[in-house]
Amino acid sequence: MGAHPQGGSAIQVTSIGGHPPLHTVKPLGRTLFNRVFAAIYALSILALLFYHAKTLFYPTTLVYFSVTLALLISDLVLTFFWVSTQTFRMFPVCRKQFPENLTKIMERSDFPALDVFICTADPYKEPPIGVVNTALSVMAYDYPTEKISVYVSDDGGSALTLFALMEAAKFATHWLPFCKKNNVLERSPEAYFELNHTCTSEAVNIKKVYESMKVKVEQVLERGKVDDEYISSDQEREAFNKWTRNFTRQDHAAVIQVLLDASKDKDIAGYLMPNLIYVSREKSKASPHHFKAGALNALLRVSGSMTNAPIILTLDCDSLSNDPETPLRAMCYLCDPATRPQLAYVQFPQIFRGINKSDIYNAEFKRLYQINVMGFDGLSGPNYLGTGCFFQRRAFYGSPSSLASPEIPDLAPDYIVDKPVQSQSVLALAHQVASCNYESRSNWGSKIGFRYGSLSEDYHTGFRMQCEGWKSIFCDPDRPAFLGDVPITLNDALNQQKRWSIGLLEVGFSKYSPATFGVKALGLSMGLAYAQSAFWAMWSIPITAYAFLPQLALLNKVYI
Ligand SMILES: O=c1ccn([C@@H]2O[C@H](COP(=O)(O)OP(=O)(O)O[C@H]3O[C@H](CO)[C@@H](O)[C@H](O)[C@H]3O)[C@@H](O)[C@H]2O)c(=O)[nH]1
Ligand SMILES: [Mn+2]
Hints:
There is one protein chain. This protein is α/β, with parallel strands linked by helices. Helices cover about 45% and strands about 10% of the residues. It has helices at about 30-55, 60-90, 100-105, 130-140, 160-180, 190-195, 200-225, 235-240, 290-305, 325-335, 365-380, 425-435, 455-465, 490-510, 515-520, 525-535, 540-555, and strands spanning about 10-15, 25, 95, 115-120, 150-155, 255-260, 275-280, 310-315, 320, 345, 390, 470-475, 480-485. The strands form three sheets. An eight-stranded mixed β-sheet has the order 6-7-5-4-8-11-10-12, sandwiched between helices. Strands 1-2-3 form a three-stranded antiparallel β-sheet. Strand 4, helix 4 and strand 5 form a beta-alpha-beta unit. Helix 1 packs antiparallel against helix 2, helix 4 packs parallel to helix 5 and helix 5 (about 160-180) packs antiparallel against helix 7 (about 200-225). The longest helix has 29 residues, at about 60-90. About 40% of the residues are buried. The chain binds uridine-5'-diphosphate-glucose (UPG) and manganese (II) ion. The site of uridine-5'-diphosphate-glucose has 21 residues, from strand 4, helix 9, helix 13 and helix 14.
């Protein structure tokens, strides 16, 4: 990194002290053609705008003037989108990782610990069995198991989700050794069984165990409560007792439940399990909760007080891991002394399941989640896409050169937690930092952690980190690292677009607008690239104008 491939066509290799390389980067071919094409295209845009301007100055009628003005405005908006798109087309790059070389530069026992954050918010919109599959798929990563801690944030504060995860913890003791022994690629059980891999008796048996867990989780969901017959120990009962009569999703105390403890819980083969921790932060109608950014900041602090791993993976509950090697790929950058000091995050693309081949609704968002990101990657690095992203914890605490210290030293990114996750002092601190008033009058959301003020917290956070001087890397291996879900109803899809547009405009019109602050901090190309997303909603102007004006003009015999 640093030396980006601008102007050269050679593959850049980073090798460490004579060891084989961990990664390479090379510019994508065809950029020259695109630049020539862009130059010609730019000239025709100028000609079009000149034509509009000329006709505006010599209008024949008021109607003619208004139509031309509307078209000029529309074309100016389209020009802005075209110009900003060119920033993505100037230096797109393609990267390769060599995870097999990782153990040649460091021992597996020296791999950094990894905290995984999984967000869920509503058991009826995001079925708990899906959350369970996502959690299992990362718990079974090909990575030193005792170094993995999976934190599930439940913003729905639902006992149903907690129940599902308790069941997942039990099933994991069978599933993890099964995956490792049989070298399974699909480490989400649902994805594995869908492929009909059940040819051995061992696979048939484990499928039975999975199915019985799934039935239980779905029955509980259907009943809407965890009945006594489903509770198998006093410890579990104690956990569910936290759902008192006045517990609602908008108003309740923090619930933090350690479901698996990496220091003592073992799988059926006798190996240690990862940590699995359920977190539902405290909510109160009187305090702002800041949606997902608030949930993630609570997780940053809770995980900080319990394990404080230097690397964090953020996932939406529908983002299944599709490749157990993924953390090793991310570590190719995060453990490389050449890239690490300035590297905030390694972003994997969002790729979706269940889209039909022709994708007539463009649900794949390929341009947003894959194509443009390669363009960003050749500049200062991709934007943060909200899921499938490995962060350095340090990047949440100020710029690479100056640490923004948190209020309590135990939350500092380099603090070493030397007590077990279930010790009383650790749990007490975890509850304290998950409280809803903890952030008031602090730097959380402004200078520390995920940034508030936008519904598109992912875009906002990545952008602000880059403005602070952090870099990022796009990692797009051939086998998709994660597979997610897209909204399948028109209503959900429209709501998503509305939420994104509002969130992006909130950044676009803030004092940190990419068009002003961004251009100053990141330079013209990166500023423009970020501005394109911020003002995405402006597409509605040319779309509306071109949808109606030509037809109306034709019907009314106005020549344009
Ligand atoms: O108050 C909230 C709201 C949402 N979520 C979680 O946030 C994730 C994303 O929400 P979703 O409704 O699925 O939004 P999408 O539009 O599908 O998500 C895209 O856009 C979001 C930003 O708008 C990003 O955060 C996501 O990572 C990105 O996949 C889900 O796991 C939710 O459970 C919370 O934890 N708390
Ligand atoms: Mn989603």
